[in-house]
Amino acid sequence: MESAPAKCSLLSPEADIQRTQYPYVTGTSVIGIKYKDGVLLAADMGGSYGSTLRYKSVERLKSVGKHSLLGASGEISDFQEISRNLDELILYDNMWDDGNSLGPKEVHNYLTRMMYNRRNKFNPLWNSLVLGGVKNGQKYLGTVSMIGVHYEDNHVATGFGNHLAKPIIRDEWREDLSYEEGVKLLEKCMRVLLYRDRSAVNKLQIAKITEEGVTISQPYSLKTFWNFSAFQNPTAGAVGSW
């Protein structure tokens, strides 16, 4: 005699999952560079639902405590989960009230462990993160991927920025960049990404962090030029084109 099929329990592991398991609304590249006085991060404000640019005012730059600044590409809801965990971490650190506070290196290590832990559970947070900061006069800039791969550098990028922006930065970056020169370099990279990355939008924020703290700019747009001949007729000269 066959046994009756087991009923789905409301307490099953599947019932506990109340957020996305796959990326649905995603943000594109984040770029970070060190400059003379601190660290600069840039990200646009687009949120893509699949291949549709559904949202145009998604903030992907966040201050973390007194000394750190975070930027994220990838799934927006996962970034919100990471932000919640970081807020709890900073609150717990402040509760010690011992005169010390977490610096960017400690926050970067925490993010690395968190991303790697979730990857080992086959339930990753679908983000690539850029973490910059300044503490005790030391500038710090690093990145971590959704599977926990991490490194530090003078300039980092996620997404298409790794392919399209990094070559520009390698040519033009130097250690003694002023704030104005750093912003100009980031805007050049963001303009190239706008032209070439379908998920990019012409609405961005640039954030800086120095010993004085974090400043995130109001959203603004870049001046663009779309009358290049390659844009007007992209298939000109291609095999089989008219």
From TrEMBL:
<protein>
    <recommendedName>
        <fullName>Proteasome subunit beta</fullName>
    </recommendedName>
</protein>
<dbReference type="GO" id="GO:0019774">
    <property type="term" value="C:proteasome core complex, beta-subunit complex"/>
</dbReference>
<dbReference type="InterPro" id="IPR023333">
    <property type="entry name" value="Proteasome_suB-type"/>
</dbReference>
<keyword id="KW-0539">Nucleus</keyword>
<dbReference type="GO" id="GO:0005829">
    <property type="term" value="C:cytosol"/>
</dbReference>
<dbReference type="Pfam" id="PF00227">
    <property type="entry name" value="Proteasome"/>
</dbReference>
<comment type="function">
    <text>Non-catalytic component of the proteasome.</text>
</comment>
<keyword id="KW-0647">Proteasome</keyword>
<dbReference type="InterPro" id="IPR016295">
    <property type="entry name" value="Proteasome_beta4"/>
</dbReference>
<dbReference type="InterPro" id="IPR001353">
    <property type="entry name" value="Proteasome_sua/b"/>
</dbReference>
<dbReference type="GO" id="GO:0005634">
    <property type="term" value="C:nucleus"/>
</dbReference>
<dbReference type="GO" id="GO:0043161">
    <property type="term" value="P:proteasome-mediated ubiquitin-dependent protein catabolic process"/>
</dbReference>
<dbReference type="InterPro" id="IPR050115">
    <property type="entry name" value="Proteasome_alpha"/>
</dbReference>
<keyword id="KW-0963">Cytoplasm</keyword>
<comment type="similarity">
    <text>Belongs to the peptidase T1B family.</text>
</comment>
<dbReference type="InterPro" id="IPR016050">
    <property type="entry name" value="Proteasome_bsu_CS"/>
</dbReference>
<dbReference type="InterPro" id="IPR029055">
    <property type="entry name" value="Ntn_hydrolases_N"/>
</dbReference>
